[in-house]
Amino acid sequence: MTFVSRGFVGRPGADRDTGKLPPGQYDIGGGFPVLSAGPTPRTALEDWDLTVTGEVAEPVRWTWREFQALPREDVTADIHCVTKWSKFDTTWSGVSLDTLLDAVETAADYVIAVCDGGYTTNLPLEDVVDGGAWIVDLYDDEPLPAEHGGPARLLVPHLYFWKSAKWVRGLRLSSTDEPGFWETLGYHDYGDPWREQRYAGD
Ligand SMILES: Nc1nc2c(c(=O)[nH]1)N[C@H]1C(S)=C(S)[C@@H](COP(=O)(O)O)O[C@H]1N2
Ligand SMILES: [Mo]
């Protein structure tokens, strides 16, 4: 492997020097756009639950109170929206999908995140385990604002941000890959920002 100090790669400019910006993206800095395909659902915490269903031996369900009692992790991550903004070092807290999926027995290879409001998105199971994804309910140490997916959203920082389903209520496990909302509308099935997988065929 060639040793090249990152500070000497590319032209001057923080984004190029740090290597944190995937191709075609720009740093939105302090902004945090809201991108929602429909109205913001408002589910009362006493009505909220999270389920893991589909191809599992026994489905599991957590109420809000039960979810709050699960082991938590703090996450700092860069996020990348397919509309080309990236936001560096966002800070979240929530429950790792490793913890949630430990509660079920499954031979599935895919997970479909199911949300209040009907949004869905599909992910390979291997992408959401081993520290790849969380269901987060705190952003910057505050309850996640409803427009950003509160009370709880999926966070999958290594894929384009449309995979980070807001208002998530369920994880459905499947042995087949079932395209979700944006994937059905022509977006890439996988969505790796580093390979610029924006649209089907990229
Ligand atoms: N339920 C749901 N989740 C969603 C969306 C949506 O419309 N509905 N939009 C996706 C897209 S395209 C992006 S870029 C991010 C935007 O999250 P933000 O509004 O917190 O920036 O949420 C993703 N998750
Ligand atoms: Mo997006």
From TrEMBL:
Entries under SUPFAM superfamilies matching the protein: Oxidoreductase molybdopterin-binding domain
UniProt-listed Pfam families: Oxidored_molyb (PF00174)
TM annotation in the entry: none
Region listing for Disordered, in residue ranges: 1-23
Residues covered by the Oxidoreductase molybdopterin-binding domain: 38-182
Gene3D superfamilies attached to this UniProt entry: Oxidoreductase, molybdopterin-binding domain (3.90.420.10)
Protein name: Sulfite oxidase-like oxidoreductase
Organism name: Actinomycetospora straminea
